Amino acid sequence: MTNKYYEFFCPVKVIAGKAALEHIPYELTGMGAKRPMIVTDKGVRAAGLLEPVIAACEERGLEITTIYDDVPPDSSTTVVRDIAGIYRQEKCDSIIAVGGGSAIDTGKAVNILVSEGGDNIAKYSGAGVLKHPLKPFFVVPTTAGTGSEVTSVAVITDEAKGVKLPFTSSFLLPNAAIIDPRMTLTLPPHITAATAMDAMTHATEAFTCMAKNPLSDAYATAAIKKISHSLLSVMDNPKDSDGRLELAQASTMAGIAFSNSMVGLVHALGHATGAICHLPHGLCMSLYLPYVLEYNLESIRDPLGELLLYLEGPEVFAATPASRRAEASISAIRKLRDALYKRCQLPRTLKETGKVTEAQLDSIAEMALDDGSIMFNPKEVSLEDARAVLRRAWA
């Protein structure tokens, strides 16, 4: 599993901590930006999360030119075109995306249009299409899971064609990611749980998939340790700002890890399940993780065994025979999922979601085999293999 050659890339400035938001005006003016646009959604605005961002800018004499707060959970090419039109009309010069994965991906896509010109975002889809740096772009995540603030990827739905368009370019990376615990204090329990398990999956797949490397390993293991230490205490004490900051940092670390080492079958199955059954991505990650680790077990025994140290701590790691550590890591993840189910009913099986039928499993398996993530899975996956994992995840 050691790669003799690898590349590692993460040029995003991370500004983290209890007063991180107050640094936004400094970052904007440092790039010559004076007329920022905020891209967000109704839920973020209703939760009062824009107030500290607006206040921080106004205190430094910086005006937020316009706020677009109608980003849907599954953003589309139409939404991106509309926002780009408002950006041009209001003569904005920079974008601040405040929200979860959808708001951040929308911000990335809008930045392509306002920087490159035109109204058709589809023509920039794919990898390596963008050739120039884009406008100043800052991201304030309000969930601790996707890691979108440090990834060079965005996914936008083309409603007319009914397909998801992927965009990949290092130019999509924000100039800075602002990680402030105030942004996640109001997250409801089930979203706290699902997004943290999304980050846990990013880190676990980053550490066990084929493109892993020593630098991505360092970020992945640090993320797993933070989530293992903090998730349940945050579930029990939602206003624990130190724990919230730990989970937010873990999400960013896991994002850096997987964007450099890729992911595998959990993501392939998750993407397909999301497309067919419209289940949230973080829930799919949490649901499939132990079943895929069991499928990959003999290909990843050594790295998976190492993860026990970060999942359960040094005492459990030392007391577990080396030959049993990989299985113990899977048990630790199952135990964590059981604890989350007890606290917020986060489903552990497809049946528990109440939104997936057995008849859909074949379609999910077929779609998963066409997903790019599957290329980096440490073990080859046939259609029958994918079906078998889905059957185990069913109930």
UniProtKB/TrEMBL annotation:
EC identifiers of the protein: 1.1.1.1
All residue ranges annotated as the Fe-containing alcohol dehydrogenase-like C-terminal domain in the record: 192-394
Requisite cofactors: Fe cation
Molecular function per GO: alcohol dehydrogenase (NAD+) activity; metal ion binding
CDD domains named in the record: Fe-ADH-like
Alcohol dehydrogenase iron-type/glycerol dehydrogenase GldA domain boundaries: 11-181
Domain of life: Bacteria
Keyword NAD listed: yes
Coiled coil regions in record: none
Nuclease among keywords: no
SUPFAM superfamilies referenced in this protein's UniProt entry, alphabetically: Dehydroquinate synthase-like (SSF56796)
Alphabetic keyword roster: NAD, Oxidoreductase
InterPro entries tied to this protein: ADH_Fe/GldA (IPR001670), ADH_Fe_C (IPR056798), ADH_Fe_CS (IPR018211), Alcohol_dehydrogenase_Fe (IPR039697)
Pfam family, one: Fe-ADH
Family: Belongs to the iron-containing alcohol dehydrogenase family.
UniProt name for this protein: Alcohol dehydrogenase, class IV
Organism for this UniProt entry: Marinobacter subterrani
